[in-house]
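so the lab meeting is tmrw and i was supposed to have these ready like two days ago... anyway. pasting both below. for each one the top line is the aa sequence and the line under it is the structure tokens. i havent really looked at them closely yet so no promises
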Amino acid sequence: MAANIQQFVSERGIKALFHFTREENLASILSRGLLRRDQLPREGLNNAA
């Protein structure tokens, strides 16, 4: 997946990507990283957007 994103970004000359999140999610993201939606229940997290 990461290689696909890297290729997509490179082919299009994209220089930056941004991820927006709610402030209450920051601690989890900093400790676990960004997770796919299907990984959230396994981590005991709510997957509501």
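ok protien two:
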Amino acid sequence: MADEVCGPYLTNSTSTNAGWHTFSSVFIWKRAQILVAELWAAFYPASPSEPHPLFPAGAAIHQLTMFADYRVPQILHHLNIITYPPSLLKILRGQVMLETGCREELSIRSASIVAVERVRLAMLRLATEADEDDKREGEDGTRISSVLIDFYLWDLAKRVENGEESITGIATVPIEPVHRTRSIWY
């Protein structure tokens, strides 16, 4: 179902969020995915037994990745889930504007997508080990999804950056500035 909603949007879009990395195209469809995820979340039924009013057959939300923005990579780095080379840390700390689609920007965003997918898979494995009932993703694949992980991490990053919350119990690195780029895709 996510493909059915995103498809017309992507087909009718006049431009794409694409870049080149090692001789191949990289497409990041953040806006299309957010469209589906926000519609799904905004109209989510009060009871899980009720069908979704916009996606009665299921939104296939589990097919979406995280949204590859600037905030989630920041918290993933803080949590030691992704690491940055010293050269990139220097760029971030200097608040240097990255060119849209450059190697650094694509690397940060792509690493975040991969990292959140790995977090999702680890969560599914832990749920399976903990309790047979928890291993299910849900009837519509939404119990443990990259979309919900993205929502949580984005909010967590803001709270940590603003000093409203701190991470305890695990080793973290100092929270770094977000990467900066001028783009309509964020």
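from a quick look at the 2nd one: Residues 2-181 form one domain. The CA atoms of residues 124 and 150 lie 16 Å apart. will dig more after coffe
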